[in-house]
């Protein structure tokens, strides 16, 4: 059951601001760092690719820890949007809740603003806003990764094309997904440089930077 605040714009605006702050704070919870602490693995920011994400947790830990990290990062993108919808808020406000969670993942207030690259959380946001687009973008990610075994290349390729894919399926999401994708690509700038130099290693090699 959902509630509606459409009759009271002031209340709706105040609730939106509260949810945006909540979404950022939720996104700031780093699943990778917490999982590694619980299991006694090294801080993912200090070893491997130095990225607090599922791929690096797999590198420094194990598959179970990486799976928990992936679930946590995806959930951060899903939960705020669902909450906003259940409160009867407009889809534009719900979409911004997802973006705030994504922003929190990139720049977490709890961890000195040293966050991850946002791929899993971005997929969570996409899946909740428009799951057909997510399936296409996710399928592209899998195709590139299966062909190259380079996680960063799969992420860069899929989110480079994500705004165009969203434009075909749900045009009103083009601008928010464009901003999200540009930020994600910016976070992968080191990987892009490594790819251009031919120095980005495949996932099979433990020395890979993600």
UniProtKB/TrEMBL annotation:
Keywords on record: Acyltransferase, Cell membrane, Lipid biosynthesis, Lipid metabolism, Membrane, Phospholipid biosynthesis, Phospholipid metabolism, Transferase, Transmembrane, Transmembrane helix
TM helices/strands, residue ranges: 12-40, 93-111, 123-147, 159-186
The UniProt record lists the keyword Transmembrane: yes
Function: Catalyzes the transfer of an acyl group from acyl-phosphate (acyl-PO(4)) to glycerol-3-phosphate (G3P) to form lysophosphatidic acid (LPA). This enzyme utilizes acyl-phosphate as fatty acyl donor, but not acyl-CoA or acyl-ACP.
The protein's annotated pathway: Lipid metabolism; phospholipid metabolism
Lineage, uppermost ranks: Bacteria, Pseudomonadati, Pseudomonadota, Gammaproteobacteria, Pseudomonadales
Catalytic activity line of the entry: an acyl phosphate + sn-glycerol 3-phosphate = a 1-acyl-sn-glycero-3-phosphate + phosphate
Family named by the database record: Belongs to the PlsY family.
Enzyme class per UniProt: transferase
Membrane topology: Multi-pass membrane protein
BP term (GO), one: phospholipid biosynthetic process
PANTHER family, per the entry: GLYCEROL-3-PHOSPHATE ACYLTRANSFERASE-RELATED (PTHR30309:SF0), INNER MEMBRANE PROTEIN YGIH (PTHR30309)
Cellular component GO terms held in the UniProt record: plasma membrane
Record's subunit section: Probably interacts with PlsX.
Source species: Ketobacter alkanivorans
Main location class: membrane
Localization per record: Cell membrane
EC number: 2.3.1.275
Single GO MF descriptor: acyl-phosphate glycerol-3-phosphate acyltransferase activity
Name of protein: Glycerol-3-phosphate acyltransferase
């Amino acid at each position: 059951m959902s509630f509606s605040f459409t009759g009271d714009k002031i209340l709706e605006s105040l609730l939106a601001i509260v949810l945006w702050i909540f979404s950022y704070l939720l996104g700031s919870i780093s699943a990778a760092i917490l999982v590694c602490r619980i299991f006694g693995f090294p801080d993912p920011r200090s070893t491997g690719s130095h990225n607090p994400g599922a791929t690096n947790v797999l590198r420094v830990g194990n598959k179970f820890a990486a799976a928990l990290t992936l679930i946590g990062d995806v959930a951060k993108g899903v939960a705020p949007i669902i909450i906003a919808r259940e409160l009867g808020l407009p889809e534009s406000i719900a979409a911004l809740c997802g973006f705030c969670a994504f922003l929190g993942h990139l720049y977490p207030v709890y961890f000195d603003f040293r966050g991850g690259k946002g791929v899993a959380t971005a997929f969570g946001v996409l899946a909740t806003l428009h799951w057909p687009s997510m399936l296409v973008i996710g399928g592209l990610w899998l195709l590139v990764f299966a062909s190259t075994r380079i996680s960063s290349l799969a992420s860069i390729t899929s989110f480079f094309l994500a705004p165009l894919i969203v434009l075909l399926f749900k045009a009103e999401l083009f601008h928010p997904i464009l901003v999200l994708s540009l930020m994600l690509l910016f976070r992968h700038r080191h990987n892009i440089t490594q790819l251009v130099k031919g120095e980005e290693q495949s996932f099979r090699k433990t020395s890979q930077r993600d």
